[in-house]
Design a protein that fits this description.
350 residues, alpha/beta, Quinone Oxidoreductase, Chain A, domain 1, Rossmann fold, 2 domains, six-stranded parallel β-sheet, 11 helices, 26% helix, 26% strand, globular, zinc ion binding
Amino acid sequence: MGSAGVETQIAAWLEAPKPGARLVIRKDIEIPTPSDGEVLVKLEYTGFCHSDVHSIYGETPMDTDIAGHEGVGRVIKVGPKVLETMLNERVGIRWQYSTCGSCEICAVNPTVCPNQHNSGRDVRGTFQQYLVAPAKQVTRIPTQLKSEIVAPLLCAGLTLYSAIAKAQLNPGDWLVIPGAGGGLGHLGVQIASKRGYKVIAIDTGEAKREMCLKLGATTFLDFKSDKVEEEVKRLTNGFGVHACIVTAGSEAAYAESFKLVRNLGTLVCVGLPRLDFDLPISPFMMVVRGLHVVGSSVGTDKEMEELLDMAVKGDVVPQIAVFDFEEINNVMEKLARYEIGGRVVLKIPQ
C-alpha cells in the first residue's frame, strides 16, 4: 500500500532508454484501475524478448517506463462494459495492446494498424505484477498449457507463425531460417516442419545443431564452418530455397539471404539489425529475379488461435529458461550478448 491509500506493486522501471540502461526494481508503482472495456490482469510470467533489449537500450522507439510484451496471468477485476464471466480467466498480453479497428488498414490486417498501441512501447508493459488491458485484445489461454510455456508464444511464436504464412509455401518446399537456433528461429523450425516444409536451419555450434535437427529441421548448416550458399544450392537442385525467413538481427544474414533464395522466391524480414541498415539488393536484381520481400511482425488473432492449438497438440514446444524477476538486469545483459539459448521467461512475484 502506497501513500494516501494507493495500492502499489512491484515493477522493473526504466528511467530512460539509453545504451547500457538498467532497470530499477520498484515497489511503489501504482496498480491501475480498469476503465470501460478493460480488465485488470495479475501477471504470473512474462517473456523477455530481444526486442525489449533493443527498446531499453534506445535502439528502437520506446515511450513508456515499463517494458515487456509476453505476459500471462489471470483477470482479477473487470471494468465497466466487461462481462464478469471474464473474472479469473487466464489470459495473455501481447505486443499489440490495441488497434483502432476502424481504419482501412485494420480492415485488411490489423497487425499493421497505424493507430495501434503496443505493450512496452507506448503503454506500460508486462515487467510488472499488474496491468490493465482492453478485454477484446487479451488472448484466452487453453487450460492444457502452462503459463511459462505460453508466454514466448505470444510474441516469438506468433511472429514466426505469421512470417511462415506470409512465405506462402507448399508442402515439400524449401525454407531456410538464418538464426534457427535462437529464441525465434527454433520455434520457426517446429512450425515449418510440422507444416511439411523442408527446413534448412542456419546457425552455429553443436548444441544448436542438435536442437534444430531434433525439432524437425531437414538439415543444419553452421555459418562458421560450412559453405552455406554452396550447400543450399546443392540441396535445392541449384535453384535456391523457395523462401528465407531472417530471424537473426544480423546484417550479414540479410546480405546472404538474397544469395540463398531462388528466382521468384520470398524473403521475409523479421530480425532487426540497426535501424539505418538497408537491404543489399538493387531494384534491377529485384526485377530480373522476380523476388518478393515482405516484413512481418506479430500476427492476427486467428493465427494466435491456430498456434495455441498446435501447442496443445505438442507440435510446438518453446525451449525456455525461467529466471526470477529480481534477476532481470543480469538476464538483459546476457540477452544483449546472445548468451542465452531458446526463450527467456521471468517469474513475476506473487
